[in-house]
């Protein structure tokens, strides 16, 4: 199946950005690891990052026409602000898993609420880059024929 990983604002800076919260692995390393695992499992995974809300929204609209079976998304700061990005995911009706590197519930109060969690298939927060891998494992399991 075709799978899509979406990273929101500032995640292009992973590796050097607040390593206390986000570790030292780069986005490129996360993406290549996920791509390899998807390929090994017989799937096709693409990764996308943008800092602008409308670019992310348009990418999700396009995914709606591309036979994407599942999305793994870290909306980053847009988690806490963007009804528009949430609405885009709801509009295309592609199932998605929400991932956060840090534990958003253990940080500032403004990070505790997500506009995505109630419509996500599941949420993983606080497990670092492993969270993306676990999300991908869950996607594989969902895509197995019954
Ligand atoms: C984040 C958590 C958000 O609160 C923050 O704005 C991010 C990254 C995470 O992966 O832990 O940019 O989504």
UniProtKB/TrEMBL annotation:
InterPro entries: DHquinase_II, DHquinase_II_CS, DHquinase_II_sf. Keywords: Amino-acid biosynthesis, Aromatic amino acid biosynthesis, Lyase. The active site is at residues 22, 100. The keyword Cell membrane does not apply. Pathway: Metabolic intermediate biosynthesis; chorismate biosynthesis; chorismate from D-erythrose 4-phosphate and phosphoenolpyruvate: step 3/7. GO terms for molecular function: 3-dehydroquinate dehydratase activity. Substrate binds at residues 74, 80, 87, 101-102, 111. The record marks 17 as: Transition state stabilizer. Its EC number is 4.2.1.10. The keyword Lyase applies. CDD domains: DHQase_II. Pfam families: DHquinase_II. SUPFAM superfamilies: Type II 3-dehydroquinate dehydratase (SSF52304). GO terms for biological process: amino acid biosynthetic process; aromatic amino acid family biosynthetic process; chorismate biosynthetic process; quinate catabolic process. It is an enzyme of class 4 (lyase). It catalyses: 3-dehydroquinate = 3-dehydroshikimate + H2O. It comes from the Bacteria. PROSITE patterns: DEHYDROQUINASE_II. Homododecamer. Belongs to the type-II 3-dehydroquinase family. PANTHER family: CATABOLIC 3-DEHYDROQUINASE. Catalyzes a trans-dehydration via an enolate intermediate. This is 3-dehydroquinate dehydratase.
